[in-house]
Amino acid sequence: MDEIAVKDDMAEAARTPEDAIVVSILAAVAEQRLPAGTKLGEQALSDLFQCHRANVRRALTALAAQHVVELRPNRGAFVATPSPQEAREVFEARRTIERTLGRAAIERATEADILHMRQTIAEEATARSTGDKPAELRLSRAFHMRLATIAGNRVLERFLGELTLRTTLILGLYNESGTSTCAESEHGPIVDAIEARDESGLVALLDEHLRHLEAGLDFSRPATDNRTLAEQLALRAAE
Q1: 169 burial class (0-12, 13-18, 19+ CB within 10 angstroms)?
Q2: I want to staple 198 with a disulfide (CB 3.0 to 4.6 A). Which of 25, 155, 193, 222 is the partner?
Q3: CA distance 59 to 143
Q4: Between 131 and 177, where is the model more confident?
Q5: Do 218 and 176 meet the contact criterion of CB atoms below 8 Å apart?
Q6: 3-state helix, strand, coil in the chain (%, to 5)
Q7: Quick check: 124 and 187 in contact, CB under 8 A?
Q8: From CA 205, how far away is CA 190, in angstroms rounded?
Q9: What is the pTM of this model?
């Protein structure tokens, strides 16, 4: 088997084998390279990351705590597959949390924050127009996480981080395009409301945006992916 190396940016972010595995899997989930239901074999990951299976088990346990991975007795680890009921609960939780974060962000947002969010929207539009779906997904998530950062509530920010990853899995499973087709037109007015300090308008826009995403789900849609685990994790053979 060829020697496998993690992408340079992931390698820099990871200090231990567990970190490397966690960072790689989270990034792959966030960009829909690693779809729901994918089996994460201990030996395969051990070979890919050139580490002991004990390192793999610790990484998978950490990912399970974030509800990104499911540990199934006598079957192993799999990327989480949210059920239709779980999908509805995730969107309900996001609406509740993002309303609270939005109200806090109204009070704390600076001009630099507004400019940063508008830049993210512009980059997201570029990714969409060029067909760069991984970048579009990453930037869409970054937009919502920026709202949490501005709000300054680290506990809710951590919860939203988990929920946005689960949302990505849900969209990959139940949305034909795998992402939102309305983010460009809906993210802009959200920033306008923050800049105008329009709390009621902002809360309504966030609620409408998330309901729009949820309305696009088709729970009868199957999901398949024929790529290898190394390809899904964006690992490359060393030259």
Answers
A1: buried
A2: 193
A3: 27
A4: 131
A5: yes
A6: 65, 5, 30
A7: yes
A8: 6
A9: 0.82
